[in-house]
Amino acid sequence: MSGQVLRYDALVVAPGIQINWQQIEGLENTLGKNGVTSNYSFQIAPYTWELIQNFNGGVAVFTNPSTPIKCGGAPHKIMYLACDYWRKKGILDLCEVHYISGASVIFGVKEYAQTLEGVVAQNNIHTHFGANTFAIEGESKFVRFEQKDTNGVSIQKTMHFDFCHIVPPQSAPDFIKKSPLSDTQNPLGYAEVNKNTMQHSRFPNIFALGDCTNAPCSKTGAAIPKQAPVVVQNILDVLNQQAPSASYTGYSACPIPTQYGKLMLAEFDYTNTPTMTFPFNQAVPRWSMWILKKYILPWLYWHKILKGKA
Predict the structure, then answer these.
(1) What is the dotted CATH code of the domain comprising 18-171?
(2) d(CA 112, CA 72)
(3) Whole-model pTM over 0.85
(4) Residue 254 falls in the annotated catalytic set
(5) Are the C-beta atoms of residues 251 and 236 closer than 8 Å to each other?
(6) What pLDDT digit, counting tens, does each position of 187-237 carry?
(7) Catalytic residue (one of 71, 164, 212, 217)
(8) φ, ψ of residue 107 in degrees (nearest 5)
(9) What are the start and end residues of each CATH 3.50.50.60 domain in the chain?
(10) Do β-strands 154-160 and 142-148 pair in parallel, antiparallel, or remain unpaired?
């Protein structure tokens, strides 16, 4: 913020994503109270667990916005874990669980979607797809969302809740959105890149990676270790006045716990084709994948990925 100007031969842009709490009317005034929570806030996340533990039945609403978000599986991960906890507590039959999602399906890769559809059915979760939450009234406990009918006409709906885990819309950071780097065709302002080389579409000595780009991959931490080497090689190519030679195929990974002690490790690419690491069907939730997520991946993140060693 000092106004200092730096000159560069190559620029790498990786500021992450922006969470837009204010775009859901009433959310900022009720978040963290009135039964309204979100794991997308570090400060509020403990309140989620408090609410789940103290819930004794009623209407539980979980939302997912229509915009891309970091960790696209997070809105329903917490839902499955909550349902499993309530089942073990013996109150799931007293819970009316709703999933209000801006997406058109439970998951974009059919092999993994089939598993999650089974989890949804097992927990008797009511799904509302193509639905965008735009307002919440914490004290009166109503969430408002917009959904198109069979004729494509948007209808505003209101749903009462006793518990609400809400996920706000997300976008590129404002400074990217307002800069020449943003994709003018994308209202969310993501940096415009070639999805394979991660090179900016209009500025050949600028590269972007991570959640700030308009590359059509899932915005997951697992994408970064695959994108970073591509960016490094292609920067070297450009500085040597050569065409970018490395290519990112859209690899993403989404570890989804379907209950306590079992997890489905979804891995896929730009074509929504499964790219499984292990020699077994990863669409089947497994205890071994739960152990991977709980113990091994955090170690890899802190000790290898952040240091550029993985």
Answers:
(1) 3.50.50.60
(2) 14
(3) yes
(4) yes
(5) no
(6) 999 999 999 999 999 999 999 999 999 999 999 999 999 999 999 999 999
(7) 71
(8) -160, 145
(9) 18-171
(10) antiparallel
